[in-house]
């Protein structure tokens, strides 16, 4: 028992030192004090994550800074600190247990390209991270939906199809992540054919139509870049559904 405690204590010191070094290297000097982060983690571990406790859970993570501090404490020994964009408590798999879903930026520039799911496992909080393909998630709530009507919620995350190059619009593919009874995995698009055919493809078509109807709405270079983006997106989906 003593050995375990000593090991844990050394781990904790090492973890905090790593965070401090990483924070100094990245210029993140506004990290909340370790005690505050640990308090948030301890508080969230001590509440049962169920619908009845939703308001308590939400008040503990009332803003982005607190949610980011919680994530830093949860992740522990990490080199790059996660910044939270949006976050919400939601029951993803219909078992009355709430999960915390949050968008994460690692760049420090507000590119929320990853989604983390935090869930209660006994008295422990476990997490799984999804995405990270460079596409920016602008509206977390709109990225969570039951696309196939089976009661479990899917999470849609954009992935860049070409490298990000500043102002040029980049084609994206919207990946569907679904629950497979023990974790979220990226789905074969063919399993969500209706989603792509009835929701994603029509949106691309509308965007292309708008560019041809109102050709003067953007400059020639931007117009060409947008047409390229939508055409690549269209082709990628058609190929994925074959
Ligand atoms: Ca649940
Ligand atoms: Ca579903």
Can you walk me through this structure?
This protein is α+β, with helices and mostly antiparallel strands and 242 residues long. The chain has a domain of 150 residues. The chain is built from six helices and eight strands; from the N terminus they run ααααββββββββαα. The strands form two sheets. It has a four-stranded antiparallel beta sheet, covered by helices on one side. It has a four-stranded antiparallel beta sheet with strand order 5-6-7-8. Strand 3 and strand 4 form a beta hairpin. The termini are far apart. It binds calcium ion (CA) (2 copies). One calcium ion binds next to loops.
Keywords:
alpha+beta; 22% strand; 6 helices; four-stranded antiparallel β-sheet; globular; disordered N terminus; 242 residues
Structural class: alpha+beta
**Number of E-state strands:** 8
Q: In terms of per-residue confidence, which ranges show pLDDT below 50 for 5 or more consecutive residues?
A: 1-30
Bound molecules: calcium ion
Radius of gyration: 21 Å
> What's the overall average pLDDT, rounded?
87
Distance between the termini: 57 Å
Global outline: globular
Strand order of the largest sheet: 1-2-3-4
Give the fraction of residues assigned to helices.
Answer: 40-55%
The biggest sheet amounts to: 4 strands, antiparallel
Order of helices and strands: HHHHEEEEEEEEHH
| Number of DSSP helical runs | 6
Portion in strands: 15-25%
